[in-house]
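Notebook entry, structure prediction.
Reason for the run: the old model in the group folder had no record of what sequence produced it. Starting over properly, with the input documented here first.
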Amino acid sequence: MNDYIKCIPIVAAAFLPAIGLQGAEGTPLSALDLDCVVHVRSRIAPPPKPGKTVSGNPISIGGRKFADGFGMHGISRLQIELDGRATRFTAWTGLTDDSPDPGPVWYEILGDGRMLYEGAPIKRGEAAKEINLDIKGIKSLVLAVQSPDYFNVHTAWADARISYEGEAPKAVIPPREKPYILTPPTPREPRINGAAVFGVRPGSPVLFQVASTGDGPMRFSATNLPSGLALDAATGRFSGKVARPGKYPVSVSASNALGTATREITFVVGDTLALTPPMGWNSWNCFADHVTAEDVRTTADLFVKHGLRNHGWSYINIDDFWMTRPPPDDALWEKLAERAIERGYAPLKIPGADDLPRLAGPARDGEGRINANPRFADMQGLVDHVHSLGLKIGIYSSPGPLTCGRCTGSFGHEEQDARRFAEWGFDLLKYDWCSYRFFTPPYDRISKTELQRPFIVMHEALAKQPRDIVFSMCQYGLGDSWEWGADVGANLWRTTRDIIDTWSSMSGIGFSQSELAQYTGPGRWNDPDMLVVGHVGWHAARRASRLAPDEQYTHVSLWSLLAAPLLIGCDLTKLDDFTLNLLTNDEVIAVNQDPLGRAARRVARDRNLEVWARPLADGSVAVGLFNRGELPAKVTARWDNLGIHGARVVRDLWRQQDLGSFEGEFSAEIPRHGVLLVKIRRAEKIVDKNKQGE
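New structure, fully documented this time:
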């Protein structure tokens, strides 16, 4: 008991007789401290409210109204400490009638580590299902809701009650699980890692760092270099310009005192950038509105110090709040406030003069070029420093007049801003919808043409620049952006709202991506948002990710299978061994960076157990065996579902070891919320030398 973080008891036992809640009908669960409910799917979300749905409405399931209970999201969990004093649990369950998505979901109840109740799938509009469960002797009760396909599902535990004797039950938040490291230490011998293909436009400057590990000092060499491309033998950094379009396979070697590693890296000179998903860091999940140039510079230095660069991590991206903010008396505020009201949005909040004063300053100079705020006084120097480390750097803006943080956006200045970003030397632009919503119809009436327009304008502006700038489109998947993101020139596009570091948020986003796989490929990537590992906090007191260790392995494995951009947002000054190990497994990264660029799909599902697979360029298959349930379970990958046959070698990518040769199928025991990520390749035929010539 002492290992748990206890929330407030349901009702203090001394008061039960007076208020008449305990007895044959039991104590209402809605009196529990609902802060212990684990269901958060947005960064700012209040705990459930007694008698209300997630949306704040009275609880109604299948047209039936309930006076008591509480709403939860479709992926949620509540753990209650009973200590064997309870006798019965009763409730009515189902999707609330105001649920945005239709489901299905299913309810599960666990007691002392075993399944007590497994509900059938239920959808919005179906009648509430009753649960009446004997829980005599149970010490720990877990109420869980599982949502296999839909992220924004609202459910409820209506008229939920526990009958008990003695001290009242308590809701608890389970203790943090101890992290464990799976990946072996990096070998001392040379090894070349990361992307094996790189896209650049004809005549654009090349900056490509060979990602290599092994003891230093390291020397690099290359053969078959195209005209205009050079390799620095000491740093392993390619630079120069290639004028002639084409594919140029270059043989690259890295050598130290222990040996030499050689690998082919293909430079594709043409119109397509980001031939593999970008890997790097973004400032938002860590520093949010308080980001400074020093934060960014320090992070770039730590990329080198901790060796992330050696494993292919290359982008250092500045999110919102690098620019200035209009003063409170600027006419823009009144104009946007009027537009917000016209379109039915909440009134626009105008910041006070003392709100983040270090954002003060003119939005643009005398020639209309966008200015950085005083926290980024030397933007050119910052960019040059990041480039000097062999890293790339990204910047942020919005097609609206204000960013999401109400700083200066690019509205009406798209070409000037694209030129400014190129002059500074930026390599990526994240372009966030934000205040542009005030210049379009409401979301339920907006057309695809209106959604596309601002991104086409910025893409055309970027295309005119003399350097390559990867275009990251952020508008949260509005209008099924994955279907047309490539058409407006984007290289990656967000498919969901913002992620946070909870199982509900991460799994709800990640496991909803299967049907989007057909839209991804070299130069065009679905972006399910950043990795929430390490120390995060959105400038609040930064803390270790709330994801359990197994959940973090699931997170990185799933994003790698999805061919998603890998962008961490953690505080690297607090980088721990577990997180560093999680981010530097080259066999896992190789799945994400595979040049074929095919994203994984779900190929099998049995309730909470799922198998996802993606084909790789070498003819093998990367497969994730996932357990989304609350108990350990055996998951099986069958060859028929993977489109393969015959004897196959299965390799555990996190442990970097072969598990053996299998035919027809492969099974493994997977922990709660865990994964086994494997690579399945054709078994080589072994010739018995003693039988040769028979």
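Summary: The longest strand covers residues 154-164.
The old model has been moved to the deprecated folder.
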